[in-house]
Design a protein that fits this description.
Length: about 220
């Protein structure tokens, strides 16, 4: 990115031994079972916080493209099918002093992963959800097309409107943890920068920009 790679340039990994997630979490992706891709975005700095939204919408489109039902985006950066995680999105901004050089948008999509007993209740893959094999390369091409589509619309109000309509937690009781703080209440709205608004017990609204969200009430 620092050497001038064009927006839309992608790095694709068949295997990940030290994949990074939120809060520095590390995971391993065996060869041939997932889409693991990083795409360079060069957004206007004022809209850089929407980079994860671009990725989430692209993965959502991919899930619909292959015919999956009950697809939802779980704030801030997970895509779920039937309430189970099928993808994670992680943007990383790259700076030169106070100048934003760009964003590396990392996306992982489970294609034919096998999960252990601990993960089976909370994770799924495209092939497990479809019940049939898919062409991983074709899905990668489609995913990158959708990233380009939404990246070109990063400053549009329609990006936020579409994202909001695909979120799975609005109107539900949630708990969000970030660091040592924990906020419990109803997820009532999101803002243009991706912040989640939660109405807590005393009726006031708390604004949350990042955190681990857990549903407190059923859909």
């Amino acid at each position: 990115l620092r050497e001038g790679a064009a927006a839309g340039s992608a790095i694709i990994a068949d295997e990940q031994r030290k994949g990074r997630g939120r809060k520095g979490r590390i995971w391993y992706t065996p060869p041939g079972v997932a889409l693991a891709v990083s795409v360079i975005l060069r957004p206007i700095p004022a809209f850089a916080s929407r980079s994860s939204i671009v990725g989430a919408l692209a993965v959502y489109d991919l899930c619909q493209y292959v015919g999956l039902d009950d697809v939802g985006i779980k704030w801030p950066n997970d895509v779920q099918v039937g309430g189970k995680k099928i993808s994670g999105v992680l943007p990383e901004a790259v700076w030169d002093g106070s100048k934003l050089l760009g964003v590396i948008l990392g996306m992982g999509v489970n294609i034919r992963n096998e999960f252990d007993a601990e993960l089976m209740p909370i994770a799924t893959s495209i092939e497990a959800s479809l019940g049939q094999p898919v062409d991983r390369l074709h899905l990668l091409e489609y995913l990158l097309e959708r990233v380009d589509y939404w990246a070109e619309r990063m400053s549009d109000a329609a990006l936020i409107t579409t994202w909001k309509g695909r979120l799975s937690m609005l109107g539900r009781e949630v708990s969000v943890e970030e660091g040592n703080s924990r906020i419990v209440g109803e997820a009532v709205d999101v803002e243009a920068d991706g912040a989640l608004l939660i109405r807590i017990a005393n009726g006031s609204i708390q604004r949350v920009l990042a955190g681990d969200l857990v549903f407190s009430s059923p859909a």
